Amino acid sequence: MNDGQDNCAFPAETGTGRRLRILSYNIQVGIHYSGYRHYLTRSWKHVLPFTGRLDNLDSIAQCIAGFDIVGLQEVDAGSLRSSYINQTKYLAHHAGFPHWYSQTNRNLGRMAQHSLGLLAGFRPKDVAEYKLPGRIPGRGALIATYGSGPQHLMVGIVHLALGRKARARQLLFLSREIQHHEHVILMGDFNCPIEDESFQRLIESTHLCLPEREMCTYPSWRPKRGLDHILVTPSLKVEHARVYKAYYSDHLPIAVDLRLPEGIDLRPSYFPAPTPLSVHNRAYVPAT
Fold it and tell me: Tell me, what's the pLDDT at 116?
């Protein structure tokens, strides 16, 4: 595994069967930080719109283009601060993803729509939303399933709580959901390093593998902590893992290249589906 940092670039053409390129990115609703002072001086951008947000999103779109599946955290689904733009849909359109899904976990009406996002070149069979436990509501998990039967692939996206007790409950919940599945990718902002006790319990109670080493993603301007992770089960062979030098948030994106086992057929669809896929009273919507 390569724990180096690379500049974002358009990757080579991806394979259609066994090779899969995955990226996870906390985009901080399109706000660029380059120092701790910005948590104070630019805090108003979490509430109000500003002219540079779309330029920053365009840079993020260029960075993530070419991956097969992208998990996004800290996305706005369309409120005052994002100029009523669903940022997941915007990035899907500008990065060339035919399929996208947005899960709003904390709905503050016109002020903010705190969400997770899935961008995919492959149309999943099913997308499920989960509300994660916690004293303060607003954390969720988004899980897409590809294929069926024992050879199905589960892809989960999470953004866990800052508090240790709430995060432990959320990790326990996730472990119960995925522990009986053979082919799993779980990614996102876990808000904890790999040596965290609750994180270790997740590894022990599931088939997920502990990363060979922690890759630092936070803060983006001087990364010292590994808060963002992509975990996989042993059947999914990691060929490369890296952190990208993409300074468009307070986190850096993390990516892995995987080899899928024989029998998992994702059947890529690079054209929008004719009808949305309805899941748990929510719609999985192709980019338009």
Answer: 98
Which structural domains are found in the chain, ordered by start? 5-286 (3.60.10.10)
Write out pLDDT tens, residues 40-57: 999 999 999 999 999 999
Average pLDDT score over residue span 10-20: 51
Q: What is the pLDDT of residues 121-160, one digit of tens each?
A: 989 999 999 999 988 889 999 999 998 778 899 999 999 9
- Per-residue pLDDT at 107 exceeds 50: yes
Residue 123 and residue 269 in contact, taking contact as beta carbons nearer than 8 Å = yes
CA 119/CA 116 separation, integer angstroms: 10
Q: What is the pLDDT of residues 185-218, one digit of tens each?
A: 999 999 999 999 999 999 999 999 987 778 999 9
Alpha carbon distance 278, 256 (integer Å) = 29
Angstrom distance (rounded) from CA 173 to CA 164: 14
**DSSP string across the chain:** ----EEE--PPPPPPSSSEEEEEEEE-GGG----STTHHHHTGGGGTS--TTHHHHHHHHHHHHTT-SEEEEEEEESS-GGGTT--HHHHHHHHHT-SEEEEEEEEE-TTS-EEEEEEEESS--SEEEEEEPP-SS---EEEEEEES-GGG-EEEEEEE--SSHHHHHHHHHHHHHHHTT-SSEEEEEE-SS-TT-HHHHHHHHHSSPPPPSS----BSTTS--B--EEEEE-TTSEEEEEEEEE--SSSS--EEEEEEPPTT-------S--SS-EEETTEEEEE--
